[in-house]
């Protein structure tokens, strides 16, 4: 690894709009990527990104250009060293959300530069703990007609996934049940079937709905309530423990180490799913994973398989806790969307995500 004091010489950011092949509903037809580039005082370069579906990319770009770059340049050039001071600098604009999404653009580029300086991949630089990471088939499919949902489930099984995830939250729970029964009939009794409500329910409705949906043996219920509702998740977890025992998974809309700690301390979640970009990059993600290990809680990174796989490979196994899984949303990977300049650093095949040879993160946008 590099020695001596390394500072940041420059940080640049540009906005890239990536159309989705399969829209995530009428309101989400693209994802916004803010591609970042850093140069360190030792000449090492790194590339990273911030990301957000449809909304907020322009604001993230403005934060990087106007509020992060002027402070970051001249500061620490090694990953992790300047993360907390920069988070504190941005805190007047919010402790999480747009600020941490923007901060990820700097953090990922610094990790990329550090690994590239040693001609290594980020997972190799951190120390990979496993050759491959189990992946599950996923889709933003609540708006799919049931025939299309069944066809998607058939594609997942044909691709070798042993776990799949389906959206729930139709106006009537009977329709959710019909859809899940149809998926269960395709995937069989031995594959895991996860369900995701995307924060659509209130506490009593979630309780009633899950009593019905327990019939299909969900492996978890993801985001049953608004992410801000810690008390509601705590109470729902208590109710589920006394009935179906369905675990609660949260994290894609929690943005700080502190929020994850609060959820775990309260017993409000049994699985956590931090989105590496939304929490501010690899630096805070590793902190969240360490806290989850203390609580004996599984960590399954949310979305972004090209990035999530690399970091998931570095997480140490915790006895008695499921190893990390990564989410592969159909036709939504950066490589699938043709957004990358180089071949994807990650391939998903036969239900596992594996890394291809590359240096750094290997994620550079066209």
Helix content: 25-40%
Annotation, overall tally of beta strands: 13
Portion in strands: 15-25%
Which structural class should the secondary elements be placed in?
alpha/beta
User: What characterizes the major β-sheet?
Assistant: 6 strands, parallel
Count of separate DSSP helical elements:
11
Shape, per Cα inertia axes: globular
Output the radius of gyration.
20 Å
Identify the strand order in the major beta sheet: 5-6-7-8-9-10
Low-confidence stretches: none
The secondary-structure element order is: EEEHHHHEHEHEHEHEHEHEHEEE
What is the terminal separation in angstroms? 29 Å
**Mean pLDDT reading:** 96
Please give a structural write-up.
By secondary structure, the protein is of the alpha/beta class. Helices cover 36% and strands 19% of the residues. It has eleven helices and 13 strands. It has a six-stranded parallel beta sheet with strand order 5-6-7-8-9-10, covered by helices on one side. Helix 6 links the parallel strand 5 and strand 6. Helix 5 packs parallel to helix 6, helix 7 packs parallel to helix 8 and helix 9 packs parallel to helix 10. The chain is globular. The protein starts with 7 loop residues before the first strand and ends in an 11-residue tail after the last strand.
Write the layout of secondary structure elements.
Blueprint: E1 8-19, E2 30-40, E3 45-53, H1 57-72, H2 83-90, H3 98-117, H4 122-126, E4 132-138, H5 146-158, E5 163-167, H6 173-187, E6 192-196, H7 203-213, E7 221-222, H8 230-241, E8 248-250, H9 257-265, E9 271-272, H10 282-295, E10 298-299, H11 305-312, E11 325-329, E12 346-349, E13 352-355
Parallel strand pairs: 4-11, 5-6, 6-7, 7-8, 8-9, 9-10
Antiparallel strand pairs: 1-2, 2-3, 4-13, 12-13
Helix pairs in contact: 1-3, 2-3, 5-6, 7-8, 9-10
């Amino acid at each position: 690894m590099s020695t001596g004091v390394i500072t940041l010489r420059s940080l640049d950011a540009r906005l890239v709009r990536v159309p989705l092949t399969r829209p995530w509903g009428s309101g989400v037809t693209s994802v916004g990527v803010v591609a970042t580039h850093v140069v360190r005082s030792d000449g090492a370069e790194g590339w990273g990104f911030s990301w957000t579906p449809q909304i907020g990319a322009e604001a993230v770009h403005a934060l990087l250009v106007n509020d992060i770059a002027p402070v970051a340049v001249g500061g620490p050039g090694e990953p992790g060293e300047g993360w907390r001071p920069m988070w504190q600098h941005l805190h007047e604009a919010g402790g999480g959300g747009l600020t941490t999404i923007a901060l990820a653009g700097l953090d990922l580029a610094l990790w990329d530069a550090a690994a590239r300086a040693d001609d290594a991949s980020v997972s190799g630089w951190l120390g990979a703990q496993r050759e491959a990471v189990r992946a599950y088939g996923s889709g933003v499919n609540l708006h799919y007609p049931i025939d299309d949902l069944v066809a998607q489930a058939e594609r997942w099984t044909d691709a070798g996934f042993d776990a799949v995830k389906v959206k729930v939250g139709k106006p009537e729970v009977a329709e959710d049940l019909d859809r899940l029964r149809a998926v269960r009939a395709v995937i069989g009794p031995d594959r895991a079937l996860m369900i995701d409500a995307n924060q659509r329910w209130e506490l009593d409705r979630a309780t009633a709905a899950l009593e019905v949906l327990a019939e299909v043996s969900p492996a978890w219920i993801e985001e049953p309530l608004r992410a801000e509702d810690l008390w509601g998740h705590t109470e729902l977890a208590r109710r589920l423990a006394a009935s179906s025992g369905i675990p609660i998974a949260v994290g894609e809309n929690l943005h700080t180490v502190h929020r994850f700690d609060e959820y775990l301390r309260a017993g409000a979640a049994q699985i956590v799913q931090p989105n590496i970009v939304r929490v501010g990059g690899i630096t805070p993600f590793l902190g969240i994973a360490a806290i989850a290990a203390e609580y004996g809680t599984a960590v399954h990174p949310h979305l972004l398989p090209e990035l999530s796989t690399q970091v998931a490979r570095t997480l140490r196994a915790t006895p008695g806790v499921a190893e990390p899984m990564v989410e592969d949303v159909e036709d939504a990977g950066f490589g699938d969307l043709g957004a990358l300049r180089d071949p994807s650093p990650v391939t998903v095949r036969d239900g596992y995500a594996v890394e291809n040879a590359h240096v750094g993160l290997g994620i550079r946008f066209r």
